[in-house]
Amino acid sequence: MSKIRIGIWGLGYAGRGMYIPELAEYPEMYEIIAGCDSSEANLEAAAQALPSMRKYTSGDEMLKDPEVDLVAIATPSFNHAQHALQSLEAGKYAFVEKPIANTYADALKLKAASERHRGKLYFRHNRRFEPQFQQVRKICDSGALGEIHQVKLHRHAYLRMDGWQARIASGGGHVNDWGSHIVDHALIFLGSEVADVWGNLRKIISNGDAEDHFKIILTGKNGRIVDLEASCGVTLGQPEYVIFGDRGTLICKGLDITMKYLKPGSKDEWLLENLQIDPEIWEHPLFIWKYLYHSISDGVPFPITTDHAVEIVRICEEVKKGTAFQGCLA
Q: Bridge-partner residues for 231, per DSSP?
């Protein structure tokens, strides 16, 4: 296969605002030939960037287009699983925006479909390729901090959620949004199966009824704890990564890493190290499109497995079902 011909299903914030400019970085790999949205305004806005794009208001009609190889699904969250299933049944490759499904039951349907349509279903957990995550993970794996016993992950901002992403009925909420990203990170840092899940959801400043702040604590069967928090109601954010090991600690905020750890082979000589992450030597969230292309074209294993993507949905559902939702305290 030379260029993969894409139809984007959903031309709002993600489809038009992210997918179109991202794919423009890989003109030798992809060509966007079609777009589908129920909103004529969204279609026209996308067509300004891609005048030759075929415009569809019906997903079923776009799926009948024989020249569409892959459907990039960027519709509202509660549609992701159904639209992926429709795409697979139509014989297309499907690339699904996070959350891959709004419920664990729907995620399991995707897993079953992936077994029927092997090599056709892919998941867009693009934050896996953030430079900060990659370097922190490499340091943990190096053993410099000793045995890791606790990890803290934060994503803080002050931003009033609005539109469908602020409404529970539309599949909105911060657990579906940032939760999908950092639960992905958390499961990797955990390094074992999950033994226990605890969570707390709150609505702080959102314009809708969905949570815009959450705290999740995962305990692994290996005893390791990952404490993760994301919020739209924090003006002074905490470091994105804090790692506690039995031989040292790491703090990463932005592109700056500070480590204090025991010198290798020593029991009492401490090293204090300050590092600056150079994004140029690491991968980037955009690189998920490269992995997707080489998986479809060359059979290279895709780094986000179906089992892992389904487990992310399970954890998020456990948090949403097992916590008492707390409304705005103001």
A: 156, 213
